[in-house]
Amino acid sequence: MTEVKSPEVPAPPAAVPAELTPERGRWHRVRPFLPLVALVVAVIVPYSTLPLPGIFEGPLNSPGTLQVLAVCLVFGGLAAGYDLLFGRTGMLSFGHALYFAAGVYGTDILVTKAGLPLWQAALLTVTGGTILAALLGAVALRTVGIAFAMVTLAFAQVGAILVARDFGGFTGGEEGLPLDVSGLPAGLVGVTNTVNLYWLALAYLTLVVFVVHRVSGSPTGRVLAGLRDDERRIGVLGLDPYRYKLVAFTLAGGLAAAGGVIYCLIVGGASPHITSSELTLSLLVMVVLGGPGTRWGPVLGGVLYMYLDHRLTAFGSSDAVESLPAVLSRPLSQPLFVLGTLFILAVYFFPGGLASLGPRLTLLRHSLQPPTRR
Amino acid sequence: MLATRGLTWRIGEVAIVDSVYLDLAPGEFLGVIGPNGAGKTSLFNLITGLRRATEGRITLDGQDIGALPPHRRARLGLGRTFQASSVFGSLSVRENVRLAVQAHRGGSMKLWRRAAADREVAAAADTALDRVGLAHRGTALAGTLAHGEKRKLEIALLLAGEPRVMLLDEPMAGVSAEDVPELVSVIKSLTGDSGRAVLMVEHHMDVILELADRIAVMHHGALLACDTPETVMANPTVQEAYLGESL
Amino acid sequence: MGTVILLTLTGLGLAALYFLVASGLSLVFGLADVLNFAHGLFLGVGAYGTWWAAGNLPGAGSDGFGFVLAVVFGVAAGTLVAVLVELVLIRPLYSRTIEQVLVTVGLSLAGVALLQATWGADARPFPRPDWTREVTGILGAQVPNGGLLLIIAAVLVLGALLAFLRWTRYGLVIRAGVENREMVTALGIDVRKAFTLVFAIGGAAAALAGALGGVYFGTVSPGQGSSLLIFAFIVVVIGGMGSVVGSAYAAVAVGLLQQFVNYYGPSGLGDVCVVGLLAVVLLLRPQGIAGKVATA
Amino acid sequence: ATACGSPQDTATGGGDSAAPVKVGLVYSQSGALASYGKQYIEGFKAGLDFATQGTGKVGDRKIELTEVDDAGDPAKAVSAAKDLIGKGTKIIAGSTASGVALQVAPIAAQNKVLFISGPAATDAVTGANKYTFRSGRQSYQDVVTAKSFIGDPAGKKVVVFAQDGAFGDANEAAVKAVIGGAGATVSSVRAPASATEFTPFASQIKTAKPDLLFVAWAGTTAPAMWQSLDQQGVLSTTTVVTGLDIRASWPTFGAAGTKISFLSHYFDGASDTEASKAAKAKIPGGTLDLFHPDGFAAAQMVVRAVQEGGDDVDKMVTALEGWSFDGVKGKMTIRAADHALLQPMFQAKLTGSGTAFTATAQKSLTGDESAPPAVAMKG
Amino acid sequence: MTEPILNVEDLSVRISGLHILQGVSFTVAPTGVTVLLGRNGVGKTTTLRAIVGLTPPAGEVRGTIRMGAQSLLARPTHRLVRGGLGYVPEDRCVFAGLTVAENLRLAERRGVSPAYDKVFALFPELDRRGRQRAGSLSGGQQQMLAIGRVLLNDNRLLLVDEPTKGLAPKVVTEVAEVLERVAESVPVLLVEQNLAVVRRLARDAVVLAAGKVAWTGDARELLLETALTRSLLGVGSGESQHPAQPGRAAAGKDGH
Ligand SMILES: Nc1ncnc2c1ncn2[C@@H]1O[C@H](COP(=O)(O)OP(=O)(O)OP(=O)(O)O)[C@@H](O)[C@H]1O
Ligand SMILES: Nc1ncnc2c1ncn2[C@@H]1O[C@H](COP(=O)(O)OP(=O)(O)OP(=O)(O)O)[C@@H](O)[C@H]1O
Ligand SMILES: [Mg+2]
Ligand SMILES: [Mg+2]
């Protein structure tokens, strides 16, 4: 029986899930602790007044820096969650923004319009987002490949239209809906408390990475990796592909909704930008930039993308750029131009994403070393 | 234990599989031969549920499985290999087999347990790999295996699922002559115990003759004959339509 | 009655625009297997090329032959950009489909920003013959000429594409090349040339859509391409990837649906209906209206 | 060397009487509203020059501007605002987009800094909170100006044609309140903002035969919309009123341009005030446009706030509330109750042909005539 | 002996770090069938692909490959093929989405009139199934298509990778006959596991083991010497073991 090529999305550049292959080598004793070290460093960053000129506007502990970092961390987590679909299960969803937006708008509306306390709003939102993902996933997963991508895109598009239409004045339409902070815990309000939002974002990122890591390393994760390669075979082995894909889809949707809750707090409101298919596309960009199917790649990609997205506006209006001739300064003052170009270069030169840089550098180092030992 | 009753699959007007009546007893080894395009692979696809039959019934232990999706049939003990190797290319060889073992053992969703920690699964997987002689390739990515090695991996995946009825689609295709005896003995050992039944498509007549208790001959989708090897080989139609002149 | 005719004809005009955008997309998507997000860029280049030529190119203008010349220039510019994109960005990434798509995503971001950096974010009035601003009375309906022009252009493009696919070997080469590029080379065919050609044609179709879209909208702005793109995607998918005829059917369905629902139903429902149509079509027939039945 | 500090440190602003006053300007330098942003900042700099007599100082204290691009994205604007506030900035101005203004306003209130919103036209900024002011006009003022086109509205039929969403909702509501409240029957035709084909809507309007058509449409599809209205004969049978956008957009009206009655926030030549002369002299190109007055007024308000309030934001607020000043458009008053900025509005006509239009003022409304109803301060 | 048609010298192939071929040298005679033998995974396919220039991008090829006086390395595949190098790949690689007729049409080369009569005479099935999509052909039918494709044109050398894999005994005989006939006019470099086919067709043999050439010489000599076959290929030659149908058994895979 010959496989006929159907118009399907090819699986993303395959990477063996790191969780499924025990690590070896010199580093294998230290490596498990590296994430912990990174986490500790991230937790104490707000205590540092280290100025990083050119990288951030102010010292590390300034609210502006912490705010940017918090946004970056949330998107790092979001990208890691999206990778559960894209990199690890091979499902190309173009509608992931919907669940994130559901998280943001859900929290905002429940707090601002319904006046619920934050914890209730957050709980309801995450539950609701997860259920939404389960329901829509149950329908969308009847299709595969490009068709799946398009059905998810269609659902997300309906979400975007509903938000823009502003039914009943719930969403504020194109103007967005500022979050009413009067009922919020005092520790989350005000510029001086930005650090709490930062820690919240860090906690979210840690949660997502941990969940994705555990799930990928679990028996279910193994099935997901199998689904990425050959769905028919999974069926013949006695596993229901649909069920596993739905679990991955729902879980990723729930994680995105949780990210939405945090993001809503950080930004202090909701705006329709986040419902657009461009957000899903940028998630895809983040994952690929970092390295799909790898543990840290998507996180790095998400953080880097959001950092650039925020910082390039400042770069574009900086004196260094302004002083260039118009042919250069005009495009360079367009953040999207720089971001798009960087992205193309990244796809070109780091096909496995940032995560592949490490191994490559090692390879380079080895090939540069004279072959002394045998 | 496996039986098909008037199994038919049509595409348009053409019957690819044409009213096939088959019975497979426990412990039996049934070889399926037939010219290229006779519908052997299609028959397998119908039995395993990758295709829906247009007419007819399939029963396993008396239970009608004709309406079940592939994974439900697999859970009832139906396993198969593919004519064109279909392994999980981006997973290592060992991980491929572990996945198969796990599919066979744990039914429910396990999101939080560490897969690598399951020693039983690992041990069962290694046994299966050993049996087909791929143990030394355990860490290689399945996608980079040479053709013959992929065939062996296919069989290892099948073994891992411990099915009661096994459908082998040309397991020997592309396996180097040297490795054939080894694989034959692996396949032979499948039926030796415990009343497992095997349905095997194979063009290598000597392999079929060595292994099969009975041979079914397919031609143009229909079952031409189903009898002992001796009778089948003596059948003039079979000689003419399938075997042709000896080299 | 007049209303129905008006809605039908303007709906067809809209459908024609969608088809013009979708045809190139469908060709590249179906044949070269690249989900081309940079299609909006080609569209923009076509529109701005025409706009620029009408103002600056000697002999070109906003009327008569001068306008034709301007459109030709715009289409040539779009084609050139498409060819360059294929040669420089897509070709080295062949067999890495996902990466190709990602490169076009990057291009769509950077390209639109570049247009904006060069000509500003604001809409510019588009040069066009005066008759395109007028209406023709058809059975009591005042039908805009711009829409009629689109319909004629769409029919011509459809015919030309079908002829290309039917009468040349390229259609075959490309379909085979998508499946197994190596094997096409192993038959002695330079598959790279065929792929470049597909991009060129896709780019030309997009640029033409950009130029005629400019006529239809009366303006050109950097984001125009991307906003049309989403409906073009929907059309391509409903029609079945790679099927030019399917895209034509789908474009007509989408255009008419949108037009009628927007008139008779509450506002915004038109878009929701189109999206709903997409979902329903895909769930019932994942390969699209005219897509081939894929076998496992 | 790594230094340590508290995570809740923020720089404390000035205090020193000679220290510069930090003013943050968060507006669109890139993105869809970049050209609005450009006018805003040009106006702001001209206004600062005017209000400080060319010194750029209030008393001894220099006004130190920090410009940040928000690209029209509220999330970026919020980050920028937090960054500025964290560095001790007490005055933030800008916000080209309504979404940005609405999300920065609560930040200002939470941190007790002064926020002067810019071109963002949404009514919701008015009365948002004690710390939020506006330097531009709001939708309601547009609608009041539109009403002045039909004389006595009683018994007249008015149709609002607007895009879906908050902008359209606000306009529809305002027309119902202002013109409908005065006795006209108001109905609406709404279209999705993404629509590209307007003929059905145009023919819908045509059949309704209104005495006045109020069009509230923003975005790049506007020219196609006007063309459809013109082609279906709406423009020649009804009085059609809409807001006059920036000068660069005028050519896109095409043939429709001379048939529309415009309400205008501002255009070059609409007023002949001290401030407008000063602004004209100062801005690059010497031609004023729609949003120059907003920037100019913002600078005037900043200078006033610093003059009267020093570093004390509450004092700044008190100083601004109820303040009247002569802006580019004429006499402007900050209404104390809800911080609405009462200002003159204009009726305009475009004359000329093809793509070269000139605008002439037909009539102007004083700030009181176009005043929106006072709303309660929300926060 | 006359000049060989193909000269492979010191061919070395690495693919993503694996040294698959390590200095392989052999020649292909200008007439008849030269067979390339070896266990699964020794690099037979890799050798053929290196000759037609289809080593994957991650791979690295060293050494020299010459056809006549002409060096083949570094020339694009489509040029090589147009220059008369026909290739029948291991996995058939028919274009599943195209019909049989389209598959054949694709193989036509510009300026040469395609020998459809010859192909249809050999494989009448292909004529009958012209409108069927190649992906729905059975394995054997696909193999016929893959071979038919290269026979449409005149070639100076054919590279054929395991043409009888998965074919019914009858078809194996047929394919072997076809190749035998083809080899009368064109030299063939054949990879084959079926020793019966090898015995029937091969004149010269090259045996690969562990990435190197283990033996070259006359194929008959190789197959006759039981000790040699056993040591190189791991099989006893010739003797069939099946009692039921001694004559028939030889039609399938040769003994074990
Ligand atoms: N989806 C399909 N559409 C049309 N024809 C099909 C389809 N699938 C199979 N066929 C046809 O059905 C027949 C049987 O195919 P099948 O693959 O079952 O043969 P087979 O007996 O396994 O042959 P082989 O030994 O060569 O593998 C063939 O003629 C094939 O062309
Ligand atoms: N793309 C690749 N990446 C990594 N390893 C590869 C790749 N292609 C082939 N190999 C390895 O090269 C070796 C030789 O492969 P090749 O396909 O040439 O063997 P073969 O002799 O044709 O075997 P068979 O008889 O099974 O067809 C195998 O071990 C295979 O795993
Ligand atoms: Mg078969
Ligand atoms: Mg091989």
UniProtKB/TrEMBL annotation, chain A:
Keyword tags: Cell membrane, Membrane, Transmembrane, Transmembrane helix
Protein localization: Cell membrane
Protein name, per record: Amino acid/amide ABC transporter membrane protein 2, HAAT family
Keyword Transmembrane: yes
Topology within the bilayer: Multi-pass membrane protein
Claim: Transmembrane helix is one of the keywords in the record: yes
Pfam families per UniProt: BPD_transp_2
TM ranges: 33-52, 64-85, 97-116, 122-141, 146-164, 184-212, 246-271, 283-308, 336-357
A GO term from the CC aspect: plasma membrane
GO molecular function, one term: branched-chain amino acid transmembrane transporter activity
Taxonomy of the source species: Bacteria, Bacillati, Actinomycetota, Actinomycetes, Micromonosporales
UniProtKB/TrEMBL annotation, chain B:
Keywords, sorted A to Z: ATP-binding, Nucleotide-binding, Transport
GO terms assigned for molecular function: ATP binding; ATP hydrolysis activity
InterPro entries found in the cross-reference section: AAA+_ATPase, ABC_AA/LPS_Transport, ABC_transporter-like_ATP-bd, ABC_transporter-like_CS, BCA_ABC_TP_C, P-loop_NTPase
UniProt feature coiled coil, ranges: none
UniProt cross-references to SUPFAM superfamilies, sorted A to Z: P-loop containing nucleoside triphosphate hydrolases
Domain ABC transporter, chain residue ranges per copy: 2-245
One annotated Gene Ontology cellular component of this protein: plasma membrane
Record CDD domains: ABC_Mj1267_LivG_branched
Pfam family name, one: BCA_ABC_TP_C
Signal peptide from the UniProt entry: none
Record Gene3D superfamilies: P-loop containing nucleotide triphosphate hydrolases
Protein name (database record): Amino acid/amide ABC transporter ATP-binding protein 1, HAAT family
Organism the protein comes from: Micromonospora coriariae
Biological classification of the source: Bacteria, Bacillati, Actinomycetota, Actinomycetes, Micromonosporales
From TrEMBL, chain C:
Record keyword Flavoprotein present: no
Main subcellular localisation: membrane
GO BP terms in the entry: amino acid transport
The entry's keywords: Amino-acid transport, Cell membrane, Membrane, Transmembrane, Transmembrane helix, Transport
Intracellular or extracellular location(s): Cell membrane
A GO CC annotation given for this chain: plasma membrane
Species of the source: Micromonospora coriariae
Transmembrane segments: 6-27, 34-53, 65-89, 101-121, 141-165, 194-217, 229-256, 263-284
Name this protein carries in UniProt: Amino acid/amide ABC transporter membrane protein 1, HAAT family
Domain of life where this protein originates: Bacteria
Family statement: Belongs to the binding-protein-dependent transport system permease family. LivHM subfamily.
Membrane topology listed for this record: Multi-pass membrane protein
From TrEMBL, chain E:
Classification via Pfam families: ABC_tran
Keywords, comma-separated and alphabetical: Amino-acid transport, ATP-binding, Nucleotide-binding, Transport
MF annotations from Gene Ontology: ATP binding; ATP hydrolysis activity; branched-chain amino acid transmembrane transporter activity
Chain positions covered by the region annotation Disordered: 235-256
Domain ABC transporter residues, every copy: 6-235
Similarity comment text for this entry: Belongs to the ABC transporter superfamily.
Protein name as annotated: Amino acid/amide ABC transporter ATP-binding protein 2, HAAT family
Annotated source species: Micromonospora coriariae
Lineage, top ranks: Bacteria, Bacillati, Actinomycetota, Actinomycetes, Micromonosporales
